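Response to reviewer comment R2.3. The reviewers asked that we include at least one raw input/output pair. We reproduce the pair for Transport-associated OB type 2 domain-containing protein here without editing.
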Amino acid sequence: MKIKLLELRFLKQNKVNVTFSSDLGIGFGYWNSSNHVKEGMEVEVELDIPGTLCFGKDIVESMDEEPKLYISMDKVNLIGRVEQIEYDNIIAVRLGHSILLIEVDDPSMFEAGRWIKIQTNELQITDFMF
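Raw output as returned:
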């Protein structure tokens, strides 16, 4: 996913919280790379949500059938379509041109083609700058 870095906040233990925009909307997360970045930069990134997500808590069915990314109540909301259910409780979610792999507690709650909304405050952002 291509994003533009809007704001960088340097936290304890060398963590950097970034607010960004993309074709899908605006979000925030932790910069998970040793590459140095500046506000205003555009970078190709991979999004990751650590941990195991639960349907009904972190994930709900979405009435929207359009990929989106937005901030609400101090959480990042991602709307995407379940692309594939993988082994080991992993599902692939399509967000526009990108795929997000997430671990879920019960993959039987999901089916390919279903639109879902994921809420998190633990989004990790890793760049593809080599």
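Residues 2-127 form one domain. The mean pLDDT is 94. Further pairs are available on request from the corresponding author.
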